[in-house]
Amino acid sequence: MKGSDVSLKHLQRALTMELTTVNTYILQERKLDDWGVDRLAKRMREEIDEEREHANLFLTRLLFLEGKPDVHTLDKIDQPKDIAHIFKTQAAMEQEAIDYYSKAAQECQEAGDIGSFNLFMTILGDEEEHVGFVEEQQDLMEMLGTQLYLARQISSVAAEEEDD
């Protein structure tokens, strides 16, 4: 089934965004693990799996519509400097996805591609949930201070606090 040019364009852009997010989150997860922030690194592995599934769904739809997926091109990936930078990067990426997927869903619907519309709407919900998580973490860092927040994200330190 040949998809409309509008749908194929949006599905390709979404695939690029998701593959970039997967690679960004892998780098962030590895940095967190390297820094010893194991509880947050574990949470990041869950996010990587979700983003990988998003990429898989966009790729599957693109192939179904007889598109020619580009899985080589990625957007720029920032090196994580600290926890605040990681959350800032994630918030920006997820907000970009929300903005783009909202527009893409509308344009796919207008082009008569309800399947792609539904896909964008479903993934849009997941992206909104992740923004909520990131905002919650940023709020906690602000309330607790970075050091206490980080201490709660390190298993050995968090276990000592729970024993007290």
From TrEMBL:
Binding site for Fe cation 3: 50
Binding residues for Fe cation 1: 18, 51, 54, 127
Keyword flag Heme: yes
GO MF annotation: an example: heme binding
InterPro entries assigned to the protein according to its UniProt record, in alphabetical order: Bacterioferritin (IPR002024), Ferritin-like (IPR012347), Ferritin-like_diiron (IPR009040), Ferritin-like_SF (IPR009078), Ferritin_DPS_dom (IPR008331)
Catalytic activity reported: 4 Fe(2+) + O2 + 4 H(+) = 4 Fe(3+) + 2 H2O
Residues the record lists as binding Fe cation 2: 51, 94, 127, 130
Cofactor(s) annotated in UniProt: heme b
UniProt keyword terms in alphabetical order: Heme, Iron, Iron storage, Metal-binding
GO BP term, example: intracellular iron ion homeostasis
UniProt domain Ferritin-like diiron: residue ranges: 1-145
EC number, UniProt record: 1.16.3.1
GO CC annotations, alphabetized: cytosol
Record family assignment: Belongs to the bacterioferritin family.
PANTHER family: BACTERIOFERRITIN (PTHR30295)
Role played: Iron-storage protein, whose ferroxidase center binds Fe(2+), oxidizes it using dioxygen to Fe(3+), and participates in the subsequent Fe(3+) oxide mineral core formation within the central cavity of the BFR protein shell.
Name used for this protein in its record: Bacterioferritin
